[in-house]
Amino acid sequence: MKKVRELEALRKEARRLAESVGLDPTPVIFGVVDYDQLNEYSAYDGFPERFPHWSFGMSYDYFRKRSAYSGWWTYELVLNTDPAIAFLRESNTPVENKGVMIHVYGHADFFKHNRWFSKTPKEMIKLMHTHAQRIEEYMNKHGVEKVESFMDKALSIQYEIDQYAPFIKRRWQDALENEEENKKEPRRIPVKRDYMERFVNPPAWLEERRTQLKSRQERQSKRLQEETELAKPQKDLLAFLARYGRLEHWQKDILSMIRDESLYFVPQMQTKIMNEGWAMLWQAKLMAEFAAPHEFIDHADMASKVLAGGVANPYALGKLIWEDMKERWDKGRFGREWELCQDPEKRKRWDTKANLGTEKIFEVRRNYNDVTFLAEFFTEELYEKLRLFTYEYIPETGAYHITSRDFADVKRKLLFQHTNLGRPMIKVATGNYGNKGELLLLHMYNGVGLNLEEAKEVLKNTYFMWGRPVNLKTIMRRKIKDPDPMRNRIHPERPLTAVYEDQGMLLRYDGESTRELALSADEVKDIRLDEDYSTVPQEWIG
């Protein structure tokens, strides 16, 4: 009881400090768990319970070994619920609990006020529990092996969804609403006396109305299917397969559950740098007051472990950008006059005493995600301070090499890592490709090709859910000429003699084998994007 009272006193003080600087977090319930429980919840993405699947066991083993052998462990877990739920490690020291509580209140404030979290369900623990129960029921009914095998296939495309779906009402959603409306009984003519009902609304007339409504429903369903399948490409492959795939009811239900859970995690993936940086920003500021004098070194050691790794670490990069943003707006380093100033010394001394930093960071916290955050606030000054570079894998040497030290390339690479959740952009073009009921997927090519072997495995999984051949249009960068194959290529900074070209390709899986079919430039022009995120110098690739 004494420890509970001490933790509650720390919690109240942490919340008071958070509110004193303008944070407005949701209420937070803190639970204390042991080392093994924390690893288990980490494997479940922070939740006490998830659906049964072997992949969570692999995640648990990863977290357990990471903390045992690398010295890097999880200090806390916090869930985007209302109230938010956070877990503290039982072995945390008092200063670690102080730092974790401030950090958690930073997250809770971000969850509550960032627009990208505004559509997420706040009772996700209950929903996860319900999903776990339903999947266990399916395993009992259809067999563990059969259900788990299907889930393996479904999880291979769990983030092939429209990440903006919660914010956009599509045309097919209007059609669905009309479809639901058509299921209602025909509208009757109101009567004042019950005995008049059979004369004013005769049964034969009502039945005729029902037939008309059913016919209209069927026409709208057909139009809905045509709009969804044959109109402009859409990103939500999971929803498409759940609606049109040749699947049993329980399989469609599992796809829908996986999609719901993926949509819940999407905002966290969209704002990883902002969210972690925001929590670290306030942890660093408030622990100066919260930590006792004898605890400063211990907290510095704790923070150094969390921030290790430089800008590859979202905690470190996010905190750095937030701090830079606040300083810039406090000193008035924004606007047209600042942008036009080319004098390095004048820019270095620039300070208009604007003091708008706090207002600006709270505004950005409300409206941005990682892509817009990096696009607007990762500046050339930050880049020069960090001395960053890009690197790529060079097949000729079988190793990674620095390919550029240019600011534009570095920033483009950062944005690439967070665009579309850092995954290839795949769209559904049609479910009736070649008028044969085949599925056609489009890989929107941005200069970075697919992993061919992984793509083939995903096509096999998709075939199982679609029930007909699956096709994928993509572009692969392939070597077409190498006049000196014996040349020693240990120095990639020298121009390579190999010549490469982008080749359009159709991958087709028909249930037995995968074929690679060449496509003409005209046949792939609809999938080539203007962006090119490859930073390999042109002279290296011919």
Describe this protein's structure.
The protein is an alpha+beta fold. The chain folds into four domains: 2-114, no CATH class; 125-254, no CATH class; 309-387, no CATH class; 399-540, no CATH class. Helices cover 52% and strands 13% of the residues. The chain has helices at residues 2-20, 35-43, 54-70, 94-113, 124-142, 144-155, 171-182, 197-200, 203-230, 237-244, 249-270, 272-290, 296-307, 314-330, 336-340, 344-349, 357-367, 370-377, 380-386, 407-418, 452-466, and strands at 28-33, 76-79, 84-89, 390-394, 399-404, 426-433, 438-443, 470-481, 499-509, 514-519. The strands form three sheets. The protein has a five-stranded mixed beta sheet with strand order 6-7-8-9-10. It has a three-stranded mixed beta sheet with strand order 1-3-2. Strands 4-5 form a two-stranded antiparallel ribbon. Strand 9 and strand 10 (514-519) form a beta hairpin. Helix 5 (124-142) packs across helix 6 (144-155) and helix 18 runs antiparallel to helix 20 (407-418). The termini are far apart. The model is unreliable at 179-183 (pLDDT under 50).
Q: Can you give the mean pLDDT?
A: 86
Discrete helix count: 21
Choose one word for the global shape.
globular
Cα separation of the termini: 71 Å
Q: Please tell me how large the radius of gyration is.
A: 28 Å
Structural class: alpha+beta
Tell me how many strands there are: 10
Bin the helical content.
Answer: 40-55%
Strand order of the largest sheet: 6-7-8-9-10
Main beta sheet: 5 strands, mixed
Taken as a percent bin, the fraction of beta residues is: 5-15%
